[in-house]
Amino acid sequence: MLITLPYVKRDTPIHRLDPRAKLLLLLAYGLAAAQTSNVWLILAGFVGAACYYGLARLKWSETRRAWLFIIFLNVILVFGNYFLSGGAIVQGIDLSHQHQLFSLPFLGFLNHPPYIGPKPLVFSVESITYMLTMGLRNFSIAFLAVAIPYTTNPGHIGVAFKQLGLPDQFAYAIDLSFRFLPTLARDFSVTLDAQRARGFELDKLRGGIFGRIARLAPLVVPIVIGSVVGAEDIVNAMELRCFGVGRRTWLTELQTRPVDRLLMALAMTVFLLVTVLNILGNFYTSGPLHILHEQGLPAFLLH
After folding, report:
1. Mind listing the pLDDT tens digit for each residue in 40-68?
2. What are the extents of the domains in the chain?
3. Where are the transmembrane segments (predicted)?
4. pTM to 2 decimals?
5. Quick one: the chain helix, strand, coil %, rounded to 5?
6. Which helix or strand (DSSP H or E) is residue 233 part of?
């Protein structure tokens, strides 16, 4: 049996939004935010996304696991990118004249053999601001993304993608993908409890890495086999219903409200405006049209 993400049934403005509006907002904002490193624009987007998430009235106890994973992943991405690049990757900024604060001995990539060697890790106003901008961008996207599974009826996910114009096969595949991880987590929990009742102790695995992997067979094999059998059952059920042969109808049909249409129009307008500014900014070195290609650092930080 398939299960879904932990949908929280609640009457809030975000819960009442059309799923298509939420998906388009996430897509438009993600693509727009990826086109700039201006800290003030990203900060404005972060505040807006936080307010949007606040309207969903989701409790920390309901989303704790998701946010712990997001925080961990964001830290890894931000600091991993900084250390791997040696602080030398800042989108759209000339780092030949950095306002350096300090540097630390570190390893970096070289242009000659052995290609990895000692290299100072520079901490500058520009690079630290970029790290902050990356973190704010990732968290703002997370605010919009986390709200979708927790505020959207699982039965409306596939319908939303279908009414966005995707074929039935793609819409249903996306609907199943939303259910896959929660179902896999449920199967893992059930299998682990069953194996522990038979004396299997996950905390006392010994040996090397390969030995430990081999001793996980009583846990991994039933989960994999169960997933394969479940997938075959779904395929057989779809074939019996001639899925994919002709045009399908869906039990639920979504109806957009004026607020949904307004949100979708606003999201697409902002995305198109940012894209146009990004293109025009390549032809100007200063001024309002170049704003997306600047970090927007305050003057007092550069002295």
Report:
1. 999 999 999 999 999 999 999 888 888 99
2. 1-84+127-152+256-303, 155-254
3. 26-54, 66-84, 262-284
4. 0.79
5. 65, 5, 25
6. helix 217-240
